[in-house]
Structures are given as structure tokens and as C-alpha cells.
Amino acid sequence: MKGGKLIIFSAPSGSGKTTIVRHLLKQPELNLAFSVSATSRTSRGIEKEGEHYYFMSASTFKKHIKNDDFLEWEEVYRDNFYGTLKSEVERLWAAGKNVIFDIDVAGGLRIKKKFPKETLAVFVKPPSVDELKIRLKKRSTESDDKINMRIAKASVELATAPQFDEVIKNYDLDMALNEAHELVADFVGVETKLKKNKK
Ligand code: 5GP
Questions:
Q1: What letter would DSSP give residue 103?
Q2: Domains contained in the chain, CATH given
Q3: Measured from the CB, is residue 104 less than 6 Å from ligand 1?
Q4: What is the CB neighbour count within 10 angstroms for residue 123?
Q5: Block mean pLDDT (10 aa), the chain, length 199
Q6: Which of 8, 75, 78, 131 is most deeply packed, by most CB within 10 A?
């Protein structure tokens, strides 16, 4: 596999990484495309097949594991599998894009290990575990049980931050968005409007 750059945003659920990734995708100079993951969890609300995820049964997911179709995969929560299909990255690289990922910490580090030079791995840090709880409750897309599961996982994930290339503190969203934009622009070798205006 050969192509453009890989940009990974990993963080505990509720840290704001999805908001950051969406913001970056809107910046044309970064030439990014989103890596749509495969998952065995069911679709939530407005999520669309092939846009947010490739939804599949656990048995189909396991067949892909057997066929060695994944660049990485994780049982992120019990019985909920998530993974990056090799074909997805190949497709986006073939289209001349840099690929951006919104994936869990273990998966992010695995891709970094496979493509050390091509990858920028960014960890998004929430203000605190308590704040995470508040954000997840506000989002109200999951049951209390699922929220507690995500919080328990968050504490473990926070300890992996030093293994990433960069850590962004998401205490103030606008600042986090700008910081993420500059980091990715530097990595892919383009200038942002912000920087040009400062000159
Ligand atoms: P959610 O169910 O909220 O969409 O995602 C749960 C977690 O799985 C999030 O931390 C998300 O980033 C992660 N995730 C999504 N896709 C992948 C993937 O392809 N691989 C891995 N390892 N994690 C993923």
C-alpha cells in the first residue's frame, strides 16, 4: 500500500474528536477524505451506510478478520467490533487524498506503527473525566450503562496520550480547532489562511 498521508485523531468518546475531524474535512487545502470504518454495531439516528460507517453483522465482520481484510480492528466495546478495511485506505489513496481517521486509541497507535512516516497521530484530551460524563449525557445517544462503559474506557485511554505524536487539549473548542488545523497543515505541507494572514 502506498499513497498520501494518514492523519489519526484518537480520543476517549466525548472528547470532541469527531467535531475536530469534521472541521478539518471542510478545509480544501488539506485535501482530506474520511476513512469510513466497518462496524458491527447498529446504526444510530441519522447515520448513513457508507458515509458514517459500513454497518455489518458480527459474523460478516469476523469473516473480514479471517480474510486479513483489515488494516486494524478492535472490539472497542464488548461485542461491538470496529475496523479499518485496507480497501478503504487504498480507495482514498488511489483518489489522491490524504486520509483522516476518527478511531479509538489502540487502533490509532496500530496504524502509526504500520506507517510510521506517513502518519500523524493526534490525541484529543478532554478537560476531565467528569466533563466527559457531562458531554456524553448531553449527547444522550446512549443508555446510562453504555455511558458508564465509555467512561471506564476513557481513564485507560487517557494514559496512552504520551504515545501520540501530538496532544491537543480540547478545553476551548475554537482553540482546539485552530490548533488541529495548523498541525495537519504543517504535516501535509500546506499553509493555512490563518498563517498567511499573519505574515
Ligand atoms: P461510536 O460507536 O461512538 O461511533 O465509536 C466508538 C469508538 O470506536 C470511537 O472511539 C471511535 O473512534 C472508534 N472507532 C470507530 N471506527 C474505528 C475503527 O475503524 N477502528 C477502531 N480501532 N476504532 C474505531
A1: -
A2: 6-189 (3.40.50.300)
A3: yes
A4: 26
A5: 86 87 97 98 93 96 98 90 97 96 94 96 90 80 81 88 95 95 96 68
A6: 8
